[in-house]
Amino acid sequence: MQYFKKSAYLFLLPTIIGLLLFRLIPVIFAFFTSFTDWDIYSPPVWIGLENYTRIFQSGEFWQILRNTLLFTAIYTVGVCIIGLFFAMLLNQRLKGIKFFRSLFFLPVITSIVAVGIIWNWILSPQNGILNILLDKIFNLQEPISWLGDPDYALIALALVYIWKSVGYQMLIFLAGLQNIPTELQEAAQMDGANKWKVFTKVTLPLLTPTIFFVLVITIIESFHTFGITHSMTQGGPYNATNTLSYFIYQNAFVHFNMGYASSLSFVLFILILVITWINFLYRKKWVNY
Amino acid sequence: MKKWIGMTVLFVFVIGFLAACGNNSDEGRADSAANAGSKDDKEASASEAINLTYFSWDPSMEETNSALIEKFEEAHPGVTIELQSYEPTDYWPKVSAMAASGNAPDVLDMSSGYVDEWASKDLLLNLQEYIDADLNEADYFTDVFNAVRYPDKENGDMYAFPYAWVSTVLFYNKDMFDEAGLEYPTNEWTWDEFLNASQELTIDTNDDGNTDQYGFWFYGRYAQIEPWIYQNNGDILNEDKTEFVVDANGKEALKFLTDLTTEHKVSPRPKDVEGTNQQDLFPTGKVAMWVDGSWNIANNRDIIGDAFDWDIATVPRGNNWSEDVTYGWPDNIAISKTTKHADMAWEFVKFMTGEERSVEEFAGGKVPIYKATAESEAWLENDQKPANKSIILEQGELIGRNSYTPGWSEWRGYGAAEGSGMNGEIDQVLDGVKTFDEALESLTPYANDVLERAN
Amino acid sequence: MKTRRSTKIIIYLFLLLYSITTLFPFLWMVAASFKTSGAIFEIPPKLIPDLLFKEGMWSNYIEVLTEHNFLKYLGNSLFISTVASLGQLLTCSLAAFAFARMEFKGKNIIFAVLIAMMMIPVEVTIIPEFLMFSSINWLNTYLPLIVPSLLVGSFGTFMLREFYQSIPSSLVDAAIMDGAKPFQIYRRIFLPLSKAPLATLFIIAFMNNWNDILRPVLYINSPEKRTVTLGLTEFQSLYSTDWNLLLTASVIAIIPMIIIFIVAQKYIIEGMVNSGIKG
């Protein structure tokens, strides 16, 4: 049941002020600059649709778009499934579970510089712990350069991203699980349902709003990743790990092609918008309120 | 409903208060500046109070810069210099945004790679008249001045003034040479001698089929490629640097280099050493030789310590060598066109680049532009490695070429975009993803597209 | 619900295994703060630092805290992040309540715009934003760092909306029968029931504000107004990085986040105990 009330606008007052003044104005400005040649330090020069035609004509863009979509798929699936799995584990009433919760959250706060150094070592072709382990088990012919070989680099990088940020998703799932009244689950178990049934018939349906939220947010976030790419591969080897968000950063603040970066951003925007819109369209099919 | 009105009022109040804070602090600053001014007026002659902002890209030099500034302020009563330091990845967005909002700092550190672009947008003050009037050119390493001339690199006016310069050198591990019974590299070394040594120094120490010590290390990085091209009398750009064309000598040098990895296997492929800082391979004793910027002397000293003996030489001469050409560039200070105190800003730049700047600020291989400081015993550091440090000074007379153009970071592939452009293409050849010809074929139109847009 | 012993052991084993991967980089970072710069890149990485229990063990910390004004930066960041995040809890929960439980004109459009704002990379809106704040003289103040983040939070609003939608209508209906006004429903029913998501949001909002680097770089000029993230850049320079000092400062920089995580976690648990919602 919902309520028809004028006072809704009062509830929304800060948000609307903030949206209009601090979010929309810069976005509209950025939209205009996407039709210009702009190096930031001198005034923009109008060039019409040139930036957009350049995007679709450049082979570089299509390679980066392919990387981006592959990254998003790996990252979103990985983070959502692992995050939910961890949240379920950490939702158990076991001794010391609070301690483990903090441990699982650690990667989120560990400095990106340290993460870069350590994972570079783990994945390194020489003396890397991962290769040493794989060699012991499978007897590798030649060491695998996880971040240096274009066939593996994007996947390896996506795994580091998942490791680093899954704590967030875990936390949100955990909050969602905590909000599910335990009476419901207990009642189902009293009725003779086994654990798996309780999970699929009671817990999961009640968690769908949280899952929906995490899915939408994670997809959006996956298109904006930056930090670990910057500290580990810088888009290399030869653009194999370059994604749209990193490409936008390169154009904005390495090459100072702000106009081109803006046009790329709006192409990215349309892409995310369509995916998110589809998400909302299909929400009714599986989300329980 | 009352509560709502209360909430709204509270909210408006909070915003208003915050806004007022912003204004107050501005006024506050203005007030204190005015006070300071009037005090100065009373105390220090008739000179008016001048405030200059100086943006530096080297946070590690904040202390020494502040000390210099203090000295300058003492010598010029009524002048205050506000120093702000940012590391390079933050520095450029910050100064660019400041310039866009019309608040460019009066004095700012300026990279040789950006002088043309900033000068062409009318953001930098032409310093030529000041330089002609005030300075004795014999006091400075004038051969590097070309890098800051605009629009013409030979005869244009100077739009920034260097405070230091760097060059590229060949680093070599003396212990490894001794062990292999080889003569040390000379400054007249040829490619054949270099290749021969590299092969001798590439060793599989434990006979497991994997190379444990490489003779050399390089990848597509600008400071590791261009020096070889210039030492073969070649180039990768046309005369006025508007077009990317690798001439025959340039191609020969590139082919010689990439063959080192793909044919002779005396240098590791980039993917073999992924995850290690590229500048740490030489100092950690993984490779016997390495070509890069002279500033790496500091990092080498840090990491090597007393682990092995090492030294430097000039980059080997190619088959078509006719004279020594060093790849190098100056780091500079520029003045904003919008400054209200151009004369005082010039005094400051002159001070920051002259004899007052002490030698301690030029750690390792950075060379002071002021000759007397550079040629002092203190800079040569005879008690430290490398023993041949003085060859860098000789290079100061030779610095002739660099590949900087507008759009350089994009077509060259530099820094946070190292995977793209020329750097990325060369790495693909080294990793065996592309052949040499394929790489050159895809690079040329890409680079020219960038150059066309940037010019 | 009872958990079987064998399942328990498997769960513990798994928890332990994964904890090693999360703990190792963290411990290494802490260990690095007790190392000399040359020892940082040792392969394989060592957890026992070379300065441990030796003279100069605390030298990195002393240098970071005295030569660099890190205590001041911590205070500044703490102020900015706390104000912005608390503000966001208030504004986001208000907006989320309206979106979840009220019917009004333009609801879908406003919500769509709010979500859409998350989709545009900050790299391209930051310079326009800078020019805007520059024109109203907000440069070198904390206002650009606090006010926008305090007023509008797309993420937080969206998250709380999802939680509010799952609160049973029967609770709300009963309150309306008793004559409760919308604000009272928000305050007496929704706020207390959403402790867990609010605590989660606080952690996330705090971390986002705390880790912001682009805005402090652009907006802050005075050294005494620097934030922690700006302070971290002091160890990088044109041709080199002081890795040991940078990692030491990173350790100092995350202490407040650890405290906040531990405190907020208590509320996430409490949320469970108190929410006696009947379906």
UniProtKB/TrEMBL annotation, chain A:
Its main location: membrane. The keyword Transmembrane applies. SUPFAM superfamilies: MetI-like (SSF161098). One of its GO terms (biological process) is transmembrane transport. The keyword Membrane applies. It holds the Pfam family BPD_transp_1. Keywords: Cell membrane, Membrane, Transmembrane, Transmembrane helix, Transport. The chain crosses the membrane at residues 7-32, 69-90, 102-122, 152-177, 198-220, 260-282. It is found in: Cell membrane. One of its GO terms (cellular component) is plasma membrane. It is a multi-pass membrane protein. Residues 65-279 form the ABC transmembrane type-1 domain. Belongs to the binding-protein-dependent transport system permease family. This is Sugar ABC transporter permease. The lineage of its organism: Bacteria, Bacillati, Bacillota, Bacilli, Bacillales.
From TrEMBL, chain C:
Pfam families: BPD_transp_1. The chain crosses the membrane at residues 9-31, 78-99, 111-136, 142-160, 189-207, 243-264. The keyword Transport applies. Keywords: Cell membrane, Membrane, Transmembrane, Transmembrane helix, Transport. The keyword Membrane applies. It is found in: Cell membrane. GO terms for biological process: transmembrane transport. CDD domains: TM_PBP2. Belongs to the binding-protein-dependent transport system permease family. This is Sugar ABC transporter permease. The lineage of its organism: Bacteria, Bacillati, Bacillota, Bacilli, Bacillales.
